[in-house]
Amino acid sequence: MGKIAFVRVFSSHPILVSVEDMLKRSFPDYELETITITELLKKRPDLLAFNSLDVMRVYYREILKNPRTFTRRFLRTPFMFQQVRRLVRHHIERNRGEYSFSFQLQSLFDASTPGLPHFIYTDHTYQESQRYEYRNAPYSTTWLKLEKEIYQNADRIFTRSSNISNSLIIDYGIPQSKVVCAYTGSNILKKDGSGDEHDYSKKNILFVGIDWERKGGPALLEAFRIVLNTVPDAQLNIIGPDVQVDLPNCRVLGQIPIEQLDQYYRQASIFCLPTRREPFGIVFIEALQYALPIVATGVGALPDFVKVGENGYLVEPEDVPALAYALIDLLQDEEKRRRFGRNSYILWKERYNWENVGAIIRREILEVV
User: For a Cys-Cys bond, which of 75, 168, 195, 336 suits 291, CB 3.0-4.6 Å?
Assistant: First the structure.
């Protein structure tokens, strides 16, 4: 039995659990070893101290404007990039003969080891993120040059959406043969049902997202204010942010455990997240799984799984009238909600589930290994 070196940055996040479980089920003939970068770094406080200096050196202008930049950029320095690459390679080299290949989640570091087949599964590139109208300040130019090495050193790069695949090919010059769109699945395990039993008679809109401003929360509230003038019995449930809202028929539920999301998806009849910037948006896949029509914005990966007039509507970020109109259109037509929701579920079943993702990844990896 061979061994897979599964390299991830953090130790706790729903996507980590989903990907790890996908690898175990897709490669039952391999042993999986998880290597967590932040755990490796905890053993090296000297590197963390030196990196603090590098953060200040590289991003000091941004930090003077906004001190929170220090935390946001801590893992995005040339120094940290090189040290993480060295730590991961050292870890793998100690037991080199045991590993059949390495599999890296996300593209923040280069976790490849020369001579060992290496694969990446990611939902973003820096160049693609710069296409958003609302974007973060740029990273260090040295870090950006290093980012290209992440992709160059991989045997295959698995993406979750077509825009990231295109970015790798066009922006980074990666051969098309090395880039595979494998899609993704939901982080919620739906307990039962096929989608046909969903109740669309209610007029409940569901928002799920932590970053209120970036996810378009303020625009949704403005739109919902307009919606209530036409559909006074519409409801809006907001899950994730802790915000103060003075609006009828609107509940702010804050952060809730992922296992409790099931009931709110089941109670919803429309999913709405008018995000301004989105690397992928796993909550949309959850909405597909629960057979919900979707109202969102046409940014990032969203056009891949929100088909206008088939399972939802896409509007421009911050376009409050268009957002309100799309919501009203669905709220006033139960049969359209049902039809759009059914199409969402079909798309989830055919493409956006972990069984499909695992089959694609296994096929491509075994071609190399």
Answer: 195
